[in-house]
Fold these 2 entries.
Entry 1:
Amino acid sequence: VSHAQLPHLSLFALPSIPEIHPGDDLGAIIAEQLRREGIELQDGDVIVVTQKIVSKAEGRLVELGAISPSPQAIALADRTGKDSRLVEVILRESRGVVRERPGLIITETHHGWICANAGVDRSNIADPDAEVVLTLPLDPDASARRIRDRLCKIIAAGGAPAPDIAVIITDSHGRAWRRAAVNLAIGVAGMQPIVDLRGQADRFGRTLQVTTVARADELAAAAGLLSGQAAEGLPVVIIRGADWPHGEGRATDIQRPIEKDMFR
Amino acid sequence: VSHAQLPHLSLFALPSIPEIHPGDDLGAIIAEQLRREGIELQDGDVIVVTQKIVSKAEGRLVELGAISPSPQAIALADRTGKDSRLVEVILRESRGVVRERPGLIITETHHGWICANAGVDRSNIADPDAEVVLTLPLDPDASARRIRDRLCKIIAAGGAPAPDIAVIITDSHGRAWRRAAVNLAIGVAGMQPIVDLRGQADRFGRTLQVTTVARADELAAAAGLLSGQAAEGLPVVIIRGADWPHGEGRATDIQRPIEKDMFR
């Protein structure tokens, strides 16, 4: 390519990830797809995985038919016009409700993410007639770590040194103030999610004003450009050439502590 | 590269954008850098430009020495511990203050963006001793349109057909609920900033739950991976191979109308 000598980075998606079922070994599936495509992971690669296939692999499907809604769920369902069994699942996944209005419930999940419906989703479930919903992974940082460890182990078993990679689990969330969703990080492994520039100077020697950057969220959003939201969704994207802080951080480090959050 | 046959996209930065001064013709400067690097723009390329060089080219520098703070600015400066002249500039750039606390002022700018200090910035000003601040472009959508028109005109003057490109102006903003800043779109040209998936089905035929995606923000965040915040900032990034909705949208289309915004 003509720009190989410029500062650059690239993203590519694995096109043949199969439909994922409970118990599937995502790390092994990704390793197999990389092998099939002739791709060797390199130091600095980031493997970005959508929450949906992680939740499916971890069996985070809930049959609505088996749910008995609580009085609180029935009342909230009445006020918002939602299925009371779905609302019960949302409440079970949440620390509390942040906002409600007809058609919309925003909660804080047990992990601390603030998003619509506690991230509970009905789309991309194999049987469209089944009354099944998909909940977020219980611990997306642990999910990312498992995928990373598995990938590194498989590479090491092949005799190659394990590369220094990161894994990010993403979900698509709405935002305050801005319409439409963006892909964000809800789990990371092998990286710090935030770049800390405090104390660094700008090109003219003045201390930088914006001192922390949510690099994991920028990587997640970039992957969203390829993974998309549409029918042909590509759940695994590799980002090569990006600069990110290596280390053992957690996506929950991105969460703004409630006492410092002016927008709840 | 080994992944050229996979779904992929690439980003590259123009490394030699000179220091920008008021009155500089950014479209011509970018065209000249592209020529120097031997890069021909292609249909679908997105040119992502940081707000800082746009504001500099548009002369959006304010000398604090020339500012007489109003009583309102002096009072807000007292409460937040900020320079009252800076606060005066922030208030002049804003429709209103959304939140304040010691060390922090969040306003709604005249464009409708909600961000710290109305986007007014002291870093990356050439003279670190000068008491000069940089304000956002007056109309970032118009700024993007001017750069796009100029680029297309220069390409057409060279005899080539003008490619179908988009231009995005970005700024780095904090978020509700999540720590650290991400790069976001504050101006666009040649594209719709939001992808509307309403009515589309997922891979199993169920209507998609997340129905709109802020594609311009995902593109801006991706460019942030290269442009960075640090000393060697790269203010112009080209994204090649991304899918985005062509058309004549405005970044202000991303703004959630105040009556639908539950987080102010």
Note: Chain B touches chain A through 85 residues (CB under 8 Å).
Entry 2:
Amino acid sequence: LGSEAEIIERIWKRLPICPTRRGWLSLGPGDDAAVIGGGPRAANWVLSSDAFIQDIHFVSEVFAPEDVGYKALARATSDLAAMGAVPTFFLMNLVLPDGKTGRWLDGMLTGMARAAREFGMVIIGGDVAKAGAIAIHLTVGGSALHGRVLERSGARPEDGIYVSGRLGEAQLGLELVLRRLHKTAAWRRLVAPYLRPKIQTVLGRWLASEGSRQARRPGSAIASAAIDTSDGLSSDLSHICEASGVGARIWADRIPAVRVPDGLLRKGFNPLELALHGGEDYQLVFTVRRAMEWSFPKSRGGVALTRIGEVVDVRNFARRHTKARIELIDAVGRGWPLVAKGWDHFRAADGR
Amino acid sequence: LGSEAEIIERIWKRLPICPTRRGWLSLGPGDDAAVIGGGPRAANWVLSSDAFIQDIHFVSEVFAPEDVGYKALARATSDLAAMGAVPTFFLMNLVLPDGKTGRWLDGMLTGMARAAREFGMVIIGGDVAKAGAIAIHLTVGGSALHGRVLERSGARPEDGIYVSGRLGEAQLGLELVLRRLHKTAAWRRLVAPYLRPKIQTVLGRWLASEGSRQARRPGSAIASAAIDTSDGLSSDLSHICEASGVGARIWADRIPAVRVPDGLLRKGFNPLELALHGGEDYQLVFTVRRAMEWSFPKSRGGVALTRIGEVVDVRNFARRHTKARIELIDAVGRGWPLVAKGWDHFRAADGR
């Protein structure tokens, strides 16, 4: 009973929420993170919380304790990157079984400290408890200068749609683990993006900035909307479309999909499927106004930025595809509705 | 291996922390909550996070879903009360087993909404996941006007030590449940303080204010230090003593202990033991400068405020009692070292 989205909707419906953009709360629930505080000269705080639970969010036997600590903080902080905020602090509720309070804990903290230094964050509070399975619940905070954040709701028809890096790499790693192929020497390195994702904090901060002087819209950010690919492109781009009231048209042959070795292609691994529906890459999907596109770079700080399609008017769009918000154009130019098939805790059958 | 305090110490030691009172962070880990942000005219935000887990923090069979929701938010928010902050918002990471996503969830949210309205809070974000046991991880935020918060470290020798309300009531309720006495009609109502604690947000806010014009120290708060009784008086007052570098002398016959019916006294329930070591009352323990005491009220907003002792110089004190920071004076005037015997997750044998 109840998908993840339905459960979240019931939470927002039954608990008191604040009308957005009023007083101290400038962005309420429903985006990657909430935005609080701040007059015009003060920095706003961006807050997000995230759960990382043994055998739900990570397969404990393949994760070294250092990987657990690193990934827990990375995935939580990716929501700040998607908002264009500068990661600053975190609080941790740590739940540990009896046998994990010694060396395991030290290793986990070492990995987490590495991530914290990389992102520029300090811990400011938390809680510890004992239970049967490892759970790391983090609330992360970042600052958004001048109150400018990248929301999901800013996409407009004719905007270009971009993704950073490659998509499907983490899902390939996870499926190698689930299919017990991760110990094969030739494929072992393909698991790394699943264990230690790179997150796009520097890119997010740039996308939230005003960019170069040539930009025609001073005061507004380079990107008009953004989200991180935590659930998978088909789900995450759908979130932007729903929040913005638009549709999207993307081209299959433009999507920068994971490179799959021949040996795995023969086993049925499909790069496009992995790229469209695989989660946990923590890349950014973002939209850019057409007027900003003429000078848009192909990469930034060593991270490829690929234009995969454009935002379309949802009114034309809805007539053709009843439920999908995204149209996928295949190699011969035919359009297909792309239904969100990303991760849903309360729908999924297999543990991840 | 490792008590709760040792585990927390390892976390602070291995993860990057910020030197307190520098830049945006005015109070780091180690108090009831952290304080961030805010120039002189802006309100500071006070943040704290707290875990509430089935069969660890609550005995699920006696908790109605409404009680779970109410208590989860109340106990987290009590840390804001102890800082004198005005509760404002929260984020929730909610972990649910399959069978709890329907009516149970609705009931839990109803209880939580009741608490949120009572305290004046809205939800601004969170995460949901599926797992075997119910877990509610909350990060609560409140505002501290003019940056004034009640820290643990402000107690000085000669300050008076006060407690609000009665102590030991929640522990009595818990022990009735554990000893299967909670269904007896005459004692059923004694379980309520364990299921739905009253928290002291209004009192905390007043203790952090400047108080009346007669107060002799404009700019400083009414209380010099404060903490909530979540672990029990012996533990929580020890925290104040350690953070402040002082000792405490308290009188057994002044402690406002839970009223225990004769039938339970005969079964061995000891009011003083319950009051000294019982947790989860969420009352406030606070200290007041001697100069402020002459006009100090006996109650505030219907909540009794009882002077139970005074802060003493730890140098004299340490000579007599090696480990304890607190001296308990019994009914005939003898002094006894009072060792902290409150709740510790990694030391406790029985589940709570």
Note: Chain B touches chain A through 73 residues (CB under 8 Å).
